[in-house]
Design a protein that fits this description.
The structure is a single chain. The chain is built from 19 helices and no strands. The protein is mainly alpha-helical and 492 residues long. It folds into 2 domains: 210 residues, no CATH class; 240 residues, no CATH class. It is globular and about 65 Å long. It starts with a helix and ends in a 10-residue tail after the last helix.
Amino acid sequence: MTDSNEASAGAQPTVLQRRAKSALWLLTVRAVLLQLMTLGGQVMLARSLEPRDFGVYAILRFALSFFVFFGDVGLGGALIQKKNQPTEDEVGNVFTLQLLLTSGVVVVVWSFAGLVDNVWPDLPTSGPWLLRVLALDLLLTSLRTIPSIMMERTLQFAKLAVLDIVLSFAFYATAVGLALTGHGSQSLVIAVLTQGFVGAVLAYALHPYRPRLRLSREVLRPIIKFGIPFQLTQMIGFLNGAVTPIYAGAALGARALGLINWAQDTAYFPLKAVEIVGRAAFPLYSRLQENPRALGESFGRAVYLCAIATAFFVALVFSMGSNVVHVVFTDKWAAALPILYVYAGVISIGFYTPIIAALLNATGRPQLLFRLSCIWVALAWVGVALATPRWGIDGYAYGYCLHVLVGNILMLSLTPRLVPHARLASRFKGPVLGGIGVYLVGKYALASWAMTPLTFISAVVALLAVHAAVLALVDRRRLFESFSLLPPDTAL
């Protein structure tokens, strides 16, 4: 179950250090391939499906995710965060408990799926059965949990990259193929199930593990002790995201929900970079818990890399947002352009909290994040309830983004105490200057010209060059250092 080379005390530090240093490069390559595939798939789906189809799919995914939280007590995060290598007994207990909880959730979903029509009457008549089909993916995902966790804990990001790329291809190949043949929102549901089956098979091929059914209260107690606060934080995040399908879906309808989700997903594209860095950082931070100086430097490097990606994308949206809609997604999404600007504006600071959340979880402080998240959820629900009746879909965006702005400002103000060695102030100069350069060149030199696919792609390449040139001018040394999240001469 464990890597034999890592079992010995002498070999383990060398292997983990090598993997830690290469992790970000591997995840970056993975991200480039994934985003090319994702971008192509999303564009094809946006052209083939209507906003209402995306709204229906968003509602079904939310309804399913509501039940998912009762089938997970943070077991995966607990195993990754452990300082010592999990024993086979611990892994077997986690696998068994996860499978039992997930099976129970699937039974509940199949029993009560018909009730979704009472909450969202705008759903098609096939909605309950589509939800039942989606529920089967939970079992498939549960089966691949242990191999995925152990690959992540031991920083085997090359294998994880293969898994993620194949999963993405399976989803988009299925979804696009079905969408082009007129299956509507059903194409997205079937694609999820296909992705789950492929993932379950491939995970065991990449990291062989023979499931062992064990259930011991004594073994599970310390794992659940960390897992429950960890999962409660995830649940608060879920409640935060729930405001869109529940409130917007009911108050504004499925089409408006589709426009809101498109604007959010498009504006939050930089969070893909945050996900990459966070995935590498969480197990790394767990290993650096006893080294505050190295932890702070590693965290600062992570923030810097995420700020670079975010600054470029936000500047691109504000300078050439109408080009993005017209050329890439078609004008049927033009109604969402005003709220795209709102979401893009707030993500310029909103990328920060997910990074520090990974650090708080990795260092055993999920309770603090949970308490702060409760405040943010309340702000999100109050904000949309006050703003939507007055300003409609635009008001919803204003109200929702309030908690993102307040929450990230609060986390930035707490950072000097939480991570005293991060030195964040000096890390924002390069990304901000690069973003300003991209905005000025994009808006005043390229926007009026980049109105065809070829000219738009050329403009984006030119803006990437502008961003890179500014960073090279003001931050060259820091830029190359930061691609290794692990500071030099740091033992793991």
